[in-house]
Specification:
With 291 residues, this protein is of the alpha/beta class. The chain contains 11 helices and 7 strands. The chain has a 7-stranded mixed beta sheet with strand order 1-7-6-2-5-3-4. The radius of gyration is 21 Å and the shape is globular. The N terminus is likely disordered.
Length: 291
């Protein structure tokens, strides 16, 4: 048996008795380790964990990273997430501070359908360890307003509403590759016609989310702290989205990004996954989903 295995190796035949749930790479797609990711994360000002919302590997790794950073940072950790909108901050804080129950949180905040399975574990870490948890995303009604009517519609909102989003007026660069790809995917030319206007406003709605998350990340992180933020992969991959707005506001921030990608063969990442992020999580495409 040993000779047969040796012969297979000599012939170049891959023998993989294990089935790893994911592979971890650096920006150049060189294989790396979770230990290295953790070391760099502990030294960062902001960590943007770009997840696939229904992927259990993402949620498990977010939980492990949060637990390990609790031990590493010793009181200098802040958590935040796209999944909570800024007008739900009071309800989230009350739960994290132990003032309300999980049932009360569900009645007071707009929780995602997969909250209990995918996000409650990390929120409960904040509750147990008395760690601030920041609601960073723009209230969805305002993103929807931008998608329908454009950014100018935000100017008509009262001051209380404007405090729940990034400061206005908002700069949106639709030539950035992420927004440009969104327009291309919709098959429209944002510069011409009503259809193009709708497509451009859809991209601007994504931008108000990115800008608002960046704004509240920066507002809630103090010098010496690390803020671990969970968001959909789109909002931070290719060092765009939230990253771009953070750089505009505070270029000196040490930002670490993590991108999650499903692949047919995680052992052989395609070259187009290069430079997606500081760390790339390669997950088998047939991984089970949480919903």
């Amino acid at each position: 048996m040993r000779f047969s295995l040796f012969l297979l190796c000599l012939l170049g035949v891959a023998f993989r008795p294990d089935k790893p749930a994911y592979q971890l790479y650096d920006a150049r797609l060189k294989s790396t380790t979770y230990a290295k990711l953790l070391r760099q994360a502990a030294d960062a000002d902001v960590i943007l964990f770009g997840e696939l919302h229904n992927n259990p590997i993402c949620h498990w790794l977010e939980l492990q990273l949060a637990k390990d950073l609790v031990a590493q940072k010793k009181g200098a950790l802040v958590l935040g997430a796209e999944m909570f909108e800024t007008d739900n901050q009071a309800a989230l804080s009350d739960y994290v501070q132990g003032k309300t129950t999980a049932k009360e949180l569900a009645g007071q905040a707009r929780l995602w359908p997969n909250f209990d399975t995918d996000y409650k574990p990390i929120v409960d870490i904040a509750r147990e360890q008395k760690i601030p948890f920041v609601a960073t995303n723009v209230p969805r009604r305002y993103a929807s307003l931008v998608s329908r009517q454009g950014l100018a519609a935000l100017d008509t909102l009262p001051a209380d509403a404007k405090r729940q989003m990034a400061p206005l007026p908002l700069t949106v660069d639709l030539t950035l590759p992420g927004y440009r790809a969104m327009l291309d995917m919709m098959g429209t030319n944002a510069a011409h016609g009503a259809t193009g206007d709708r497509a451009a406003n859809f991209a601007r709605a994504q931008a108000i989310k990115d800008a608002t998350m960046a704004h509240f990340i920066r507002q809630n992180r103090q010098p010496g702290q690390t803020l671990l933020h969970i968001n959909g992969d789109y909002h931070s991959k290719n060092f765009e989205g939230i990253v771009w707005y953070l750089r505009q506001q505070q270029p000196s921030l040490r930002i670490l990004t993590i991108s999650s990608v499903e692949m047919l063969d995680p052992d052989k990442p395609a070259s187009d996954n290069r430079n997606l992020a500081d760390f790339v999580i390669a997950i088998p495409a047939d991984m089970t989903k949480t919903y």
